[in-house]
Design brief:
This protein is of the alpha/beta class. The radius of gyration is 18 Å and the shape is globular. A hairpin with a 4-residue loop joins β1 and β2. It has one domain: Metallo-beta-lactamase, Chain A. A six-stranded mixed β-sheet has the order 1-2-3-6-8-9, with helices on one face. The chain has a six-stranded mixed β-sheet with strand order 10-11-12-13-14-15. Helix content is 24%, strand content 23%. The longest helix is centred in the first third of the chain and has 12 residues. It has seven helices and 15 strands. α4 packs across α6.
Amino acid sequence: MSTPLVDLSAKPEVTGFFDPQSSTISYVVRDPARTACAVIDPVMEFDQAAGRLTYDSADQIITFIRSRDLSLDWIIETHVHADHLSAAPYMQERLGGRIGIGEDVRIVQDTFGKVFNEGTEFQRDGSQFDRLFADGDCYQVGGLPGFALHTPGHTPACMVHVIGDAAFVGDTLFMPDGGSARADFPGGDAGMLYDSIQKVLSLPDETRLFICHDYCPNGRPLAWESTVAEQKTGNIHVGGGTSREDFIRFRTERDAQLSMPQLILPSLQVNMRAGDVPEDDDGNQMLKLPVNKL
């Protein structure tokens, strides 16, 4: 499907919220002419040692939305995150809105349904989500035009969401001095990630890019916004005309040195269910710990 045109004249108000546990930035995206908004990648905190869930980050966003009398149209996941748990259902229960993710979440559900030995009661059709986005799908946030770009490579279900002149790139790109995300999770592929990055970099140079994680390389201050032009010239992994072959070589060598994210096992179980925590037969929230599966 051809990429819809970016409407650079539509400029949403974007507010970021940083979660220090996972270095995740969640976003509230508002139509400045109306009260409608969307939330991108909300976080639920998880104390793994205690097995305790908390909602400090989500509550900050909820307070922000309520204090401005905004209406929540969408809760959008850029992908099935492996480093934090989603607060989407917690937020939906309090503010409404529809939960959306890329349609290839079904691939992720099938892959990790096997890893976690999920039974037939676990649906692998994406039905836990309210909307499954296909490449090029269009939608609205109030009067703002939005569309989804399929950007696999980090995971099969990764999507970049372009709302007005702002693109929310998930883990497809980091800040220019951070480069790109790993591509060695099940279903990941460095070559596909390179191709997806080129799709993002084909957007207009002025397009604002909002990243999902920032790890403050070399001790610089936290940052989460760049532009297509800045990424083209300055991204340490793909800027300046890096070839596909060089990127694949670098990414493969680099990924072999990385350890698994601390919260990958609880995150995948929750996030492939649209943020719902699985329960045992007695209705107790319960997570599994598969051994030697990743």
